[in-house]
Task: structure prediction
Amino acid sequence: MNIDDNSVESVYRSLRQRLAALTGSDGEATAMARLIFHSLKGWNTTDLVIHAPDRLSEFTLERIDNIMERLGNHEPLQYILGEGRFYGMDLRVTPDTLIPRPETEELVEMIVERADGRSDLRVLDIGTGSGAIAIALARNLRFPQISALDISEGALDVARDNARRLHADIRFLHADILTYDPPRHSLDIIVSNPPYIALKERAEMEPHVKDHEPARALFVPDDDPLLFYRRILTIGLDALTGAGRVYFEINPLYASELKQMMQQMGYDGVELHKDISGRLRFASGELGVGS
Result:
């Protein structure tokens, strides 16, 4: 790292400038710089101020340079650091898992708010990946019974490790949702952030996503973009209790089609929800009591 002063303050400032040049965003650069120092030193923003005059070792400077080199090759920061933040938790992530994203926190918040303090809810998280949604719900609902499913053994290994470290009681299932059938009337909530990006959209995606995150967790066929939603909704007709609910993260391009499908399949109170950026990002619905 070619700077004259290797104090924390100077290195942090230089790192933010390098990241801003790479990302084009001062805000993103600051967030990334904080993540890097948290990973390397275990420091929060207060610690950065306290340690500002301290000098960093050559080893730490070399690690920062290595991180910057990998970022320059479009490798996601979370994979480089081996961790990502989600709903106040530090989660281990690997190329077997999607990187937890801030907008998905809004899906968790919606479920927790609508649970309204109910206890012993039986929840299935489909396509759990790193376990982010399942673990957040296990820690924020009242005495829930959480199951989490994924087709990837690599992802499940990461999710189990995260659940163990964060003391979340979750039953993990290795299964393909296209063939899996939970017991009848065994669930109160199904939640999923399934693959929803059509292959034709791939060319427009950022390299750090399309070239590094697991394709099986991202993409669906162009001719059937609602493939996984249809299957999950079909499962819900049998597995959910009366008034059980489904919650999805969605592709805004297919929001209207998904809402129509949910209504046609017999779900009531179907809603589309915008994320904090104003994009249609979530869908929810309730199984009729008489279903």
